[in-house]
Write a structure and sequence with these properties.
alpha+beta; globular; 110 residues; HIT family, subunit A; 21% helix
């Protein structure tokens, strides 16, 4: 996936501020944050979107949610929002499934 920004980040072709990484996932700070805390939780396996999930992705998807919980726990967040954008009409801008973790004061956009 040469044109996928997240795949290029995984391959270290594009720099990013990693908050977490293991064999299956990585977590980065969103470069255009919508809240005080805005993390992207991304599987290393290239999956186009939630709409593209298959039965073999069940464990990975479950692990993704539990990783989001871990990120919230480690940051001692009292509350947060988890968001999947699916498809262009759903706001998905990068064609690689990822989960947004947002917490704190929303940042207003110009």
């Amino acid at each position: 996936m040469e044109e996928c920004i997240f795949c290029n980040i995984i391959d270290k072709k594009i720099p990013a501020e990693f908050a977490y990484e293991d064999d299956d996932f990585f977590v980065i700070k969103d470069i255009n944050p919508k809240a005080e805390t805005h993390l992207l939780i991304i599987p290393k396996k290239h999956i186009f979107s939630v709409a593209s999930l298959t039965d073999e992705d069940r464990k990975l998807t479950s692990d993704l949610i539990f990783l989001a919980k871990k990120m919230g726990d480690e940051r001692k967040l009292s509350g947060y929002k988890l968001v999947f954008n699916v498809g262009r009409e759903g706001g998905q801008m990068v064609d690689h499934m990822h989960l947004h973790l947002l917490s704190g004061k929303l940042i207003s956009l110009p």
